[in-house]
Amino acid sequence: MGKYTASVADHLILPARVRLPPVDERMIAGRGGSVTAPVPIRLLIDTGAKRTTLIPGIVDHFQPTSGAEAHLVTPVGSVMIDLVWVCLEFPEAGLASFSEILVARHPMPPLLAQFRGLLGRDLLARMHSFEYRGRRGRYTLRDTPGWFDWLRRWL
Amino acid sequence: MKTQEIKDERPRFAENDPPLDLSRENAAFERERARLVHDHLGHVALIHGDDVVGAYPTYSEAMTEGYRLFGLARLICRLITEKDEPEFVPFIDINHPCVRRID
Q1: How far apart are CA A85 and CA A20, in angstroms?
Q2: In a domain, A2, yes or no
């Protein structure tokens, strides 16, 4: 469906939007409640992170369903944190959405406080490709094969 | 002996809350884990209190059934995996109250 290319300065940044999964929004709306509006965020692409994360402030804003807990290993120790179900969309990037995914409720260190979470390998693995062109200072994410990928299959 | 009562209502996360106490739901899942892994690996287990209500191919299907049966009760949707493996994440604020250290 889409391809997103962005220049890289210090970080690899992907614009995204968080909302509740559609099943939860339907339930809340069906009971006459007000559905929390989607929130635009910036995710830091982190190929070293196995799991996609969102900061507690974003998670708490939506009050999503719990998906149990995760044991995370970090350079400074092992921790347990909550997993929650959310929907991640990429309207600015033009990439396909993940309508129901498990993310970790995970605080970013103060030096990365400008980001609302990490895009980890769990979601990168569901994309077609992630390419970092170091000399050009750009990266490209594709959610489906491009024309050249189709051609390569036939050659 | 004083025990902590867990209300049967949708859990609410507040900014500095520690991780949820999921001891009941975790115990229920572990009791059923072998069967769930055998029959429904990769699906989503819907857990309500001490009961694993069922296993569903997607979160959406699990919660549709959960809302139908229990409304806005305390429901946990857990992925069915053989074991819980630690996951590496390089960046974290280890001192934040929403993190529970285990070492």
Answers
A1: 8
A2: no
Q: Does A67 touch chain B (CB under 8 A)?
A: yes
Within an 8 Å CB–CB cutoff, is residue B6 touching chain A?
Answer: no
Tally of structural domains, chain A:
1
Supply the ipTM of this predicted assembly.
0.91
The identity of residue B66, as a single letter, is G
| A–B CB contacts, 8 A cutoff, strictly below | 154
In a domain, A135, yes or no: no
Report field, pTM of the whole predicted structure over 0.90: yes
DSSP B59-75: HHHHHHHHHHHHSSS--
Residue A89 touches chain B, beta carbons under 8 Å = no
**Residue A146 domain-assigned?**
no
Expressed as residue numbers, the domain containing A98 is 10-126
The tens digit of pLDDT for each residue in A101-119 reads: 999 999 999 899 999 999 9
Residue A147 in domain:
no
Contact B60 A56 (CB under 8 A): no
